[in-house]
Design goal:
alpha+beta, Glutaredoxin, five-stranded mixed beta sheet, 5 strands, 8% strand
Length: 306
Amino acid sequence: MSSDETGQTPDARGRRDAVREKAQQVKARQSRNRVLRLSAILLVGFAAVAGAAYWVTSAVLPTLSEPTLNPTAMTDDGVVIDRALQRETAGEVPEEPAEGEEAPAPEETPATEPIRIHLFVDYLSEAAGEFQRANATQLTEWVDQGAVELVYHPVALLTSKSNGTKYSQRAAGAAACVYEHAPEAFIAFNNELLTNQPPVDSDGYTDAELADRAIATGADDTRAVRACIENEDFFGWAREATERALNEPLPGTGDVSLTGAPMILVNGEPYVGSLDKPEEFAAFLLALDSEEYLKTAQPEDESEGQ
């Protein structure tokens, strides 16, 4: 048997070459697999980036670029409830005089301007609900007598207290929808949201449930109200209105900003008394400049008890 200078036989050299060739094949296959894996990773990465870019352009950018829808009938982000609106809501329509009869004389305008009460309410705030339940009756009577004008400002301070559903903000937007499309139902809907609140840290009412409640409280234009609430037309406005209240002077004040809900201002003066004692709130009003006027305009049950 012959051998080369290394002393290896041809069979040995053949086996060595075969092993080398096999190793080279394995190495080449591993290299190809690495290239394929890297290509797959890059493709997945590109797909993720493309998906994120599509989401930003299709969902985020339109939201950022679209202007916020704002209610057109509000005053300083609030709903003014005066005697005219309250009587219209109650269905009190002046009767037309019969033929040959003289028209009744118009009601006298009070010599003193009504006291204006601004109420900043979060519809998830238990304290706001407490104040409404305790004071709604006397507030209604004062408005009917022309002694007071109420301005309800829906705000969203407890947006994080509803398991991610942002109930406070949605409810504030729903209140704006009702006043925009069915002002005749606002007083009842506002009272409903304040006196029949979902618990804090619950999901709150869905948009569909808010729409149902709005319609149940007397909204005439049911289609427009439901569409506005379920499409969350004034959801963005509720956030921006809250930011304005937190960062800018509140109506009728020089430098008072929103610090919590409810926040109640009487002719620009913050009320800091008990929320569940209507007689205490009445005393606060009587202590203001319009004391003499309110003494003749306070509810009958209170005047009899004094």
